[in-house]
Amino acid sequence: MKLSVVIPVMNEEESIKPLFEALQTALSGVEHEIVLVDDGSSDGTIDAIEALRTPNVKLVVLNKNYGQTTAMAAGIAEAEGELIATMDGDLQNDPGDIPMMMQYLHDHDLDVVAGRRAGRKDGMMLRKIPSAIANAIIRNMTDVHIRDYGCTLKVFKQDVAKNLGLYGELHRFIPVLVQLYGAKMEEVDVRHHARKFGTSKYGIGRTFKVLSDLLFMVFFQKYSQRPMHLFGTLGFLSLFIGLTMNIYLLTVKILGEDIGSRPLLSLGIILTFIGIQLITTGFIAEFIMRTYYESQNKKPYIIRKIVGKH
Question: For all residues of the chain together, what is the average pLDDT?
Answer without folding.
Answer: 86
